[in-house]
Q: What sequence folds into this?
C-alpha cells in the first residue's frame, strides 16, 4: 500500500485506491452474475469481419475503424473472444479514471470526485453491454473519458495535457461508434458553458488568471474537435470518392423516413432515386404479405414506426438501394441519403410529427431507465428523507447546498442536461430513441444524483452539529 501511495499524486491517494477497489468489487459482482460471458449479436459479424487492409476496403465499409481495431488487438493478444468482456471492462475503468482526473478540479475534495466517478462504474450501458461484442459499451466508456478531458481542459486551459488528450478521445469515440459524432459540436458548446459557469461561481477570482476567455476557448475546442474529422473525411474522399465519416448514415435514415413513402410520393422524388423508391415499395408490400405484424401503410403512430424500423432498414430499403447500386456500398448509402432527404422534402409534416413524438419518447425512456437503475433505486427514496430531516432540524433558512458544492453540482447538472439532449436530438434525426441509445445518453445523471445525495447528507450532518452546539 505504501508503494501505491508513493506512486499516486498527493491528495489523490486513498480516493483513487477506494475507486480501484470499487472497480474490483463491481468486476467480481459482474462475474458472479454471469455478465462476463462473451455474447455475439446481430452487429458482431460486421465488426469481426471488418477489412483493415487494404485501406480502401475499410473506408467503404458500413463500420468505422475504432471497434474493429479494438477487437483485433484483444484477439491478437489473447487469441480468445472470451477476453473481450474483460478488455471492455478494463477500458471502461481507465475511462472512468480519466473522468475522475478531469473532474477533480471541479470538486472541493478528491473524495467527492471519487464518489461521483464511482457511480460511473455501474452505468446501465456497461451493465447491459460489457459482455456483448458490439460497440455500444466501449463507445460510451470513451465518451465518459472525453467529457473528463473536456473538464480538465476548461478548468486548467494552460496545461497542455488536457488539449492533447481531448482531440484523440473525441476522434476515437466516434470512430468506435459514429453515433457519437455529436461530440464534435457538443464539446465546444459544453466547454464554453462550463467556463462561463466556473467564472460565474468562482467569485474569489482564483481561476481568473488561468482562463483564456470564452470565445478563444470555444474556438480552440471547435478546432480540436472538427480538425481530425475533416482530415479523415478528406482522406476518404481522396481514396474512395466519398466525403463523410462512414457509408452508413442513409441506412437508419431511410429506416425511419422511408416509412412515410407511398406510391403517389414517388413522382415528387428526383429521378435518380425513383427506382429505389419503387423497388422499396415492392419489397415492403411483399414483406407485409409474409409477416402479419408488419404493415405496409404510411402511419404516424410512433410505436408502429419503431416496431417496423429494423425490417424497414434491413429488409426493405437497404436491399432496394443495394440492388439499384449494383452492390457498391458507397453508392448504396448515397442513394439512401438522397431518398430520405427527398421524402422529407415531399412530406415535411410527417417528419416534423416524427421528431416531436420521438423527442417525447426519448425523454420518457431516458427518465424511466434512470429511475430503475440500482443506484438510483437506493438514492432517490433516501433524498427526500434526508432533506426533510435537515429541514426539521434547521427551520431557519436552510440553503440548497453547502457553498463549496455549488460548482460541482451545477457543472454536473449542466453536463448531464446538455449531453442527454444533444445526444437525443442527434439520434432522432435518423433513428428511434431506443433504450440502448438512451442508456448512453443519460450516463452523466448518476454522478449528479450521487452528488445531490452527498450535499443533502452534508447539510444534515451540519444541522446535527449545530443542534449539539446549541444544546437542542
A:
Amino acid at each position: 500500500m505504501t508503494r501505491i501511495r508513493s506512486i499516486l499524486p498527493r491528495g489523490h491517494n486513498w480516493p483513487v485506491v477506494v475507486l480501484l477497489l470499487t472497480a474490483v468489487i463491481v468486476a467480481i459482482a459482474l462475474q458472479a452474475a454471469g455478465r462476463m460471458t462473451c455474447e455475439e449479436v446481430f452487429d458482431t459479424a460486421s465488426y469481426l469481419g471488418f477489412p483493415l487492409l487494404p485501406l480502401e476496403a475499410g473506408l467503404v465499409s458500413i463500420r468505422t475503424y475504432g471497434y474493429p481495431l479494438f477487437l483485433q488487438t484483444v484477439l491478437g493478444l489473447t487469441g480468445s473472444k472470451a477476453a473481450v468482456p474483460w478488455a471492455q471492462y478494463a477500458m471502461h475503468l481507465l475511462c472512468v479514471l480519466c473522468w475522475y482526473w478531469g473532474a477533480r478540479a471541479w470538486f472541493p475534495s478528491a473524495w467527492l470526485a471519487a464518489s461521483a466517478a464511482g457511480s460511473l462504474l455501474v452505468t446501465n450501458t456497461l451493465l447491459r453491454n460489457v459482455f456483448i461484442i458490439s460497440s455500444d459499451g466501449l463507445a460510451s466508456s470513451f465518451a465518459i473519458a472525453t467529457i473528463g478531458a473536456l473538464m480538465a481542459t476548461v478548468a486548467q486551459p494552460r496545461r497542455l495535457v488536457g488539449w492533447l488528450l481531448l482531440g484523440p478521445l473525441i476522434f476515437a469515440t466516434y470512430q468506435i461508434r459514429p453515433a457519437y459524432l455529436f461530440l464534435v459540436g457538443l464539446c465546444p458548446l459544453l466547454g464554453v458553458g462550463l467556463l462561463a459557469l466556473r467564472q460565474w461561481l468562482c467569485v474569489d477570482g482564483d481561476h481568473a488568471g488561468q482562463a483564456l476567455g470564452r470565445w478563444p476557448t470555444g474556438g480552440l475546442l471547435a478546432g480540436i474537435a472538427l480538425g481530425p474529422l475533416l482530415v479523415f473525411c478528406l482522406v476518404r474522399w481522396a481514396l474512395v470518392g466519398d466525403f463523410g465519416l462512414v457509408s452508413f448514415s442513409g441506412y437508419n435514415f431511410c429506416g425511419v423516413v422511408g416509412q412515410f413513402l407511398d406510391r403517389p410520393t414517388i413522382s415528387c422524388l428526383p429521378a435518380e432515386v425513383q427506382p429505389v423508391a419503387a423497388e422499396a415499395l415492392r419489397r415492403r408490400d411483399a414483406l407485409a404479405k409474409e409477416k402479419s405484424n408488419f404493415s405496409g401503410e404510411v402511419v404516424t403512430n410512433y410505436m408502429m414506426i419503431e416496431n417496423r424500423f429494423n425490417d424497414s432498414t434491413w429488409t426493405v430499403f437497404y436491399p432496394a438501394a443495394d440492388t439499384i447500386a449494383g452492390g457498391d456500398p458507397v453508392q448504396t448509402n448515397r442513394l439512401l441519403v438522397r431518398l430520405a432527404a427527398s421524402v422529407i422534402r415531399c412530406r415535411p409534416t410527417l417528419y416534423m410529427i416524427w421528431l416531436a413524438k420521438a423527442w417525447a419518447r426519448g425523454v420518457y425512456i431516458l427518465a424511466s431507465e434512470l429511475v430503475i437503475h440500482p443506484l438510483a433505486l437506493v438514492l432517490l427514496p433516501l433524498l427526500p428523507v434526508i432533506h426533510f430531516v435537515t429541514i426539521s432540524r434547521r427551520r431557519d433558512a436552510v440553503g440548497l447546498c453547502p457553498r463549496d458544492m455549488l460548482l460541482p453540482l451545477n457543472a454536473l447538472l449542466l453536463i448531464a442536461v446538455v449531453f442527454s439532449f444533444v445526444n437525443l436530438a442527434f439520434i432522432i434525426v435518423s433513428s428511434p430513441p431506443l433504450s440502448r441509445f438512451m442508456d448512453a445518453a443519460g450516463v452523466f445523471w448518476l454522478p449528479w444524483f450521487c452528488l445531490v445525495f452527498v450535499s443533502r447528507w452534508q447539510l444534515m450532518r451540519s444541522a446535527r452539529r449545530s443542534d449539539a452546539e446549541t444544546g437542542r
In short: The first helix runs from residue 2 to 7. The chain has a mean pLDDT of 89. The radius of gyration is 25 Å. The chain is about 70% helix and 0% strand.
